[in-house]
Design a protein that fits this description.
Elements: E1 7-11, H1 15-27, E2 31-35, H2 38-47, E3 52-56, H3 64-74, E4 79-84, H4 89-97, E5 102-105, H5 110-150
Helix pairs in contact: 2-3
Length: 151
């Protein structure tokens, strides 16, 4: 089975942060797209499938937690990791209540970032495997019932 290269969407209005994150993630072998606003992130998520989105809480056009909620509603299987340089308990609680899969604080430690993304990719892969197994089991059971009905 050919393993797909994960696609990661980095959403941050700081060009330097985007560049640094992109470099770190690409060195890991992952595909990376950058969005500098919530609107750009929404448009890119409509055009492409991403495994993970790294979302800054402070964006110029929309609050990151609102973007998170919108992405959760339209792309529930995409892992969403909130990233902030302004850690507040209320932000963390709101992010987790709106579907964040993780919450990281800037400045980011590259090792922690990569570990968190890898954990989320593994969770996503396990969920997909379970879904495939359930479908296969359902089809097998259904086929047996149909064959029994023919005899």
């Amino acid at each position: 089975m050919i393993k797909k290269v994960p696609k990661i969407l980095v959403v941050d209005d700081d060009v330097n942060t985007c560049g640094t994150l992109s470099l770190i993630l690409r060195k890991r072998g992952w595909n990376v797209e950058i969005a500098n606003s919530g609107k750009e992130a929404i448009n890119k998520s409509r055009e492409q499938l991403f495994n993970v989105a790294l979302l800054d809480i402070k964006l110029p056009d929309i609050d990151g937690t609102q973007l998170l909620k919108m992405l959760y509603e339209t792309k529930p299987k995409m892992m969403k990791i909130m990233v902030t340089g302004h850690p507040e308990v209320t932000n963390a609680v709101e992010a987790l209540n709106n579907g964040a899969d993780a919450y990281l604080i800037k400045p980011l430690c590259p090792e922690d970032l990569l570990k968190t993304i890898k954990e989320k990719l593994d969770e996503q892969e396990q969920a997909e495997e379970m879904t495939e197994d359930k479908i296969a089991s359902f089809l097998e059971t259904r086929s047996k019932k149909l064959l029994e009905g023919l005899t």
